[in-house]
Amino acid sequence: MAFRFNFTSEDLDPEAPGTEQLSPATHALPALFCLAHTTRSTVHFQDYNSEVIRLVTIPNLLINTAYHDQTQSQLPSSAEAELEIDTQSDLLQQDPVAHLGPLAQRCRFFAGDWAHLASNLNIPSEAYKYDLILTSETIYAHASQAKLYALIRSILKRSGMALIAAKSMYFGLDGNVLSFAQLVESRGEMTLTTLYRFGAQVQREILKLTFK
Ligand SMILES: C[S@@+](CC[C@H](N)C(=O)[O-])C[C@H]1O[C@@H](n2cnc3c(N)ncnc32)[C@H](O)[C@@H]1O
């Protein structure tokens, strides 16, 4: 199942030249927003599992971009519309990226552990690092927080920003916003601030991570 959605945010500069964004994927809606509403930015998608990229992220990308016109007539004009995608179809069994057409030049997809991503990316210099990193629900495990931090630190431009969406705390899991904030503080290299806090029963936050 994949989702089609309508964007309303006016936050992005659609013509910002050469903007590079990295997004941990799954449904990757904020990253899709960046891609669909900009013309010159490059968006890289990452998930631990290649199946997630192939069966969830890329289908979402297709119906929101390259397949947008074809799917338009199949959906009600609702932001909550859903579209069934046949995961056994040729589209997904063969080379799904090929279906992106010209958009493929503005996207790349990576699967694997954060511990190896920086070396896989093999970024040659500061100019090739990311302007924006988007990640959500990725700081719930204390042991993984250091890997995520190290990755962001090594691939984010000095002038860039990472936006991290997370629950303030996770029941039954040992990672939370406080433990991530303590990790960032202990390294002394970057600043973590809370941009938004919302949610009544389960409090969620949007955190901003930048270099000092
Ligand atoms: C709870 S899911 C959240 C998925 C998606 N960002 C969302 O908000 O719906 C956690 C994600 O963290 C990523 N993740 C967790 N630990 C990871 C690791 N060590 N290396 C790479 N990715 C990891 C996985 O790819 C997984 O999709």
UniProtKB/TrEMBL annotation:
<feature type="region of interest" description="Disordered">
    <location>
        <begin position="1"/>
        <end position="21"/>
    </location>
</feature>
<protein>
    <recommendedName>
        <fullName>Histidine protein methyltransferase 1</fullName>
    </recommendedName>
</protein>
<dbReference type="InterPro" id="IPR029063">
    <property type="entry name" value="SAM-dependent_MTases_sf"/>
</dbReference>
